[in-house]
TrEMBL record:
Residues 63-176 form the TonB-dependent receptor plug domain. Residues 1-34 form the signal peptide. It is found in: Cell outer membrane. Belongs to the TonB-dependent receptor family. Pfam families: Plug, TonB_dep_Rec_b-barrel. This is TonB-dependent receptor. Keywords: Cell outer membrane, Membrane, Receptor, Signal, TonB box, Transmembrane, Transmembrane beta strand, Transport. InterPro entries: Beta-barrel_TonB, Beta-barrel_TonB_sf, Plug_dom, Plug_dom_sf, TonB-dep_rcpt-like. Residues 424-958 form the TonB-dependent receptor-like beta-barrel domain. It is a multi-pass membrane protein. It comes from the Bacteria.
Length: 995
């Protein structure tokens, strides 16, 4: 996108924001009068329960699918600048993305993206709705960004913890999260809030305003809202173990690989203060006669201090005696060059949102309406400091080398050596800046009418949404230029780039032996101002119509019927910059001029190599749902059968059918209800999986398996910087899942009024799961003899080409997960004590979460209880609150159980030396396999002053509980933001006002 186009986008969004704010002020001016008006006569409106887990709309109907609800009071008590954070605290939500996840990534485009994941099945298998309607995706994976949702007018959030594809269509495999807004709000309300961590960072400021007023004898309803949220984020630490602020929990916890699998001792060792020995902060000669020679900030050579008393072997493979060759780690020693802690703990977020709804009552029973939502989210993060680079071949004639090293080269009869560096000489670190702008409009109608002597309800709508995402990466190396700039020589007494072609095209040499800052001209050459860039546009069109009614009655009551149809179109196009994409015919070549040094095929950046692409598909659907009352008597209770079926036709993969069958029974036992439901659910492949342009990610320090018989042309052992290329597959088919839920509910029994508890067992089996093998998996399978994977990579290419691994998605995997959901609450009052007391608890047990990659030789892995992932054995949320007319106080506990290390393809076997079985890639042995769970205590309080003003405060993570280390097999951030709080104690305070 040109600068002019970008500016116009900002201007148009700002205009929408100002216009909406102006309308809010106009409506607010009349809100005082509106609040004194008599509410519209609703006596003609049939009382009904609208259940997110079903399309049935009927008085007294109870759906068999469990649904958890968070009301407006729950969301206000959480006091979060983004209600997404409050909702993700529900135990059934596991693996959601957010501002603290994905910050280590440069290329994913998902930094700061807030999306839900139910049951640990991933954000792509959870359907998120706004007032029961789909929302345009904010990413090519098909997931929306909750930060772009209007939030102040949300009056409740329903979380359906079971399959709902028969009711709502694709993606509802794990369940549905439905935001329900107040469509009849009259008055004015505002909220301002600020917050900061106990470490003085991640300052937050939130301002929200909403107004609603009725006109034309209360037939015209107008509502507007606007909000602005600024979250400073937590900046990255530095090199070594220098965590941001005064946090002291980072210890470079790593699983070091001994490389020996069958000697009775563990293959992997859990160690803290790990040291990658192929590079240092300012450079290290990593193999050969001069191995172990490092450089300080001034460029002076010194003998590097390897951990564990390691001694360099001086061999060509760079092994260090006393350290671990596989993965290249020592323990202890000089850790100053480690880069793992140099990752933002939370992305910086700026969120702006406006929402308008205009409804008009045609009569007492029918309304037409239109809504418009304009929103923008800007985020930024630092994925790592410097740009750790290994495997560089440096000439002994480089004029920047100290004379002592030149002499040592001559004395040892060498003309070149291998070199690795963290590139701490770069004055600025890599930063990633995604901006998502969303425009979404809906026109619709709902109401009721009479037909065939019966009353019917209907709702119909058309939605069009567009989401534009622009990603800029700044201060990142253009690798071919970097490689040219570090190879220096002397010509006519001047130090210049050794390559005459590079020299003729603007190459300026740099000195990488030490920390000398490159000149401005050199920085402009190796980190040009126009860095990696991606512009993508996603569009969604939906037309939907639904009917519900009670066409006839049976012996036990009226039969309820819902039916309808939907048409949907999803499309996207994306454009990457020419240096990443390789499209030298791009119109932006003035910003990215041709350079013969660069690879014409693209992938020239250290990371963030975005590629161009496009794709679209359409969907036609029809469904029907029926509720049949079976029993209705005092002696036998009340029972009903609920069934639904959906026909879906995808333009890409054809027709698929989904269904559900469920039942509820309100037994004769006081307050006891039994429920059960089974369903067939689907998730269609998203645009990214079908048509994704190649996504290239740099994998520094990629581990090459050690073997005596490597694949032809491939090396054995060691580590290398490699590129992982992920591409789409247009032949994918929908995933098919079978859901079963069986439960019991005790609600408000006469012997304990105000008490309720539910227990539900769930079981989900997903087949044909769309997945791609990771780069390490592909290489490991090939080295283990599965030759079908050997053509997907080359770790020893010729001609200066960077080692690469190609990865593609397939319908290969299966997932089986089961467990229990428990929810309980008790509301009561105490004699002589004002107010009401509420105790509420929710718990999810993940009994198993078995993933089978579905490839030859692969073993199914049960990741339930792996606290390095998102599915602990138990996850609990408990809330105790006391509310009076003016004062409220609550205590909340968030807890999850102890667990272990692992991944979706790895399940470690803990054992002691002398007792270990043979270690395999899927069942590797390890000496320590324990991750402590965590308990987080939050407290909140509020006070109403009686004039519509409320003061509130909240402290999250009151005890400032640090995260448990989640070790990496590389020196990454050794913490898991999917479960653990990385920020520490957090203070919030704010004011609410309403009239």
């Amino acid at each position: 996108m040109s600068a002019v186009g970008s500016t116009r986008g900002v201007a148009s969004f700002s205009s929408a924001l100002l216009a909406s704010s102006a309308v809010a002020m106009i409506l607010a001016a009349g809100a005082a009068q509106a609040q004194t008006q008599t509410p519209p006569d609703n006596t003609s409106v049939v009382t009904e329960i609208v259940v997110t887990g079903s399309r049935i709309r009927s008085e007294g109907f109870t759906a068999p699918t469990p649904t958890q609800m968070l009301g407006q009071a729950d969301l206000e008590r959480a006091a979060q600048p983004n209600i997404f954070t409050a909702i993700t605290q529900l135990p059934s939500l596991q693996g959601s993305s957010g501002a603290t996840t994905g910050t280590f990534s440069t290329s994913s485009g998902q930094q700061g993206l807030s999306s839900f994941s139910l049951r640990g099945l991933g954000t792509i298998r959870t359907l998120t709705l706004l007032d029961g309607q789909r929302v345009v995706p904010a990413n090519v994976t098909g997931v929306p960004d909750i930060s772009l949702f209007p939030q102040l007018l949300v009056e409740r959030v329903d979380v359906v913890t079971g399959g709902a594809s028969a009711s709502y269509g694709s993606d509802a495999v794990g369940g549905v999260v439905n935001f329900i807004t107040n469509k009849k709000f009259v008055g004015f309300k505002a909220n301002v809030q600020t917050g900061v961590t106990t470490y003085g960072d991640n300052h937050q400021w939130l301002a929200q305003v909403a107004a609603g007023k009725n006109f034309m004898d209360d037939r015209l309803h107008v509502q507007v809202s606007g909000e602005y949220d600024w979250e400073e984020g937590v900046p990255a630490g530095g090199f070594g173990e220098d965590a941001p602020g005064s946090r002291d929990w980072y210890t470079t916890a790593t699983l070091v690989n001994r490389g020996i699998t069958n000697d009775g001792s563990p293959q992997y060792l859990y160690r803290e203060h790990a040291q990658a020995y192929q590079y240092t902060k300012y450079g290290l000669i990593s193999s050969g006669p001069l191995q172990g020679t490092a450089f300080d900030i001034s460029g002076n050579p010194f003998q590097f201090q390897y951990g564990g008393g390691g001694v360099p072997s001086k061999a060509a493979n760079g092994a260090v005696s006393g350290c671990y060759t596989n993965g290249g780690f020592c323990v202890g020693g000089d850790l100053s060059g480690n880069v793992g802690v140099g990752t933002s703990l939370q992305s910086r977020i700026k969120r702006m949102n406006t929402y308008t709804r205009v409804g008009f009552d045609l009569d007492a029973n029918n309304e037409i309406y239109a809504t418009f939502n304009a929103a923008r989210v800007e985020s930024s993060n630092q994925p790592n400091p410097g740009a750790a680079t290994t495997g560089l071949t440096m000439s002994c004639s480089n004029p920047y080398l100290p004379a002592s090293i030149v002499a040592a080269c001559a004395a040892n009869g060498i003309t070149q050596f291998n070199f690795g560096t963290s590139n701490a000489l770069l004055p600025r670190n890599i930063t990633v800046h995604p901006t998502r702008t969303q425009y979404r409009g809906v026109i619709g109608a709902d109401g009721k009418f009479n037909a065939l002597g019966k009353e019917w309800r209907y709702d119909a709508y058309y939605e069009h949404g567009e989401n534009t995402t622009n990603i800029h990466v700044r201060d990142i190396l253009l690798m071919p230029r970097y490689r040219a700039a570090i190879q220096a020589t002397t010509v006519n007494g001047q130090i210049v780039c050794a390559d005459p072609v590079a020299r003729a095209n603007g190459c300026v040499p740099i000195n990488i032996f030490g920390g000398q800052r490159p000149s401005d001209a050199a920085l402009a050459y190796i980190t040009p101002k126009n860095g990696p860039y991606q512009h993508s546009v996603q569009k969604q069109d939906v037309a939907s119509i639904n009917f519900s009614g009670e066409p006839f009655s049976l012996w036990a009551g009226p039969v309820s019927l819902a039916f309808g149809g939907e048409w949907r179109k999803e499309q996207y196009h994306v454009q990457g910059d020419p240096y990443g994409d390789g499209n030298t015919d791009s119109p932006n070549t003035t910003d990215y001029p041709a350079d013969p040094v660069l690879n014409a095929a693209g992938s020239n950046w250290f990371a963030g190599n975005y590629h161009s692409g496009a794709g679209k598909y359409s969907v036609k659907e029809a469904y029907a749902e029926v509720n049949i009352p079976l029993v209705n008597s005092d002696a036998a209770g009340r029972a009903n059968l609920n069934m639904a079926g959906r026909w879906t036709d995808y333009s890409t993969s054809g027709t698929v059918y989904t269904w559900k069958v469920g039942a509820t029974w309100d037994t004769p036992i006081d307050g006891v209800r039994l429920r059960a439901v089974t369903s067939r659910d689907v998730r269609a492949p998203n645009l990214s999986e079908l048509f994704a342009a190649p996504v290239t990610t740099t994998l520094p320090n990629f581990t090459i398996p050690t073997t005596t018989n490597p694949p032809p042309g491939q090396p054995s052992g060691g580590a290398v910087t490699a590129l992982q290329n992920v591409v789409g597959n247009p032949d994918l088919k929908p995933e098919i899942a079978k859901n079963v839920t069986i439960g019991a509910v005790l609600s408000n029994p006469q012997w304990l009024p105000g008490f309720s508890i539910s227990v539900d067992w769930y079981n989900i089996v997903l087949n044909g799961g769309i997945s791609s093998l990771g780069a390490q998996q592909i290489v490991n399978f090939c080295y283990q003899g599965l030759t079908q994977f050997c053509g997907a990579f080359n770790l020893a290419p010729s001609g200066g080409v960077t080692p690469f691994i190609n990865s593609q998605t397939f319908n290969l995997a299966s997932i089986k997960t089961s467990g229990f959901d428990i929810e309980s609450s008790y509301r009561f009052e105490l004699p002589s004590v004002p107010g009401r007391f509420t105790i509420r608890g929710l718990a999810t047990n993940t009994h198993k979460f078995v993933t089978n990659p579905g490839i030859p030789g692969a073993v199914a892995i049960d990741s339930a209880g792996q606290n390095s992932g998102a599915t602990p054995d138990w996850k609990v949320l408990a809330i105790q609150s006391w509310d009076t007319d003016r004062f409220a106080f609550s205590v909340q506990e968030r807890w999850f159980s102890d667990g272990r290390f692992g991944g979706t393809t790895t399940e470690y076997v803990e054992c002691k030396p002398g007792s270990c079985p043979v270690s395999t890639s899927s069942r590797p042995t390890i000496d320590y396999n324990h991750m402590s769970g965590a308990t987080y205590v939050d407290i909140s309080a509020s006070y109403k002053f009686g004039n519509g003003l409320q003061l509130y405060g909240k402290v999250d993570n009151l005890l400032n509980r640090d995260p448990t280390p989640s070790p990496q097999t590389n020196t990454g951030l050794d913490a898991n933001p999917a479960l653990y709080d990385l920020l520490g104690r957090f203070y919030h305070v704010g004011l609410r006002y309403s009239f």
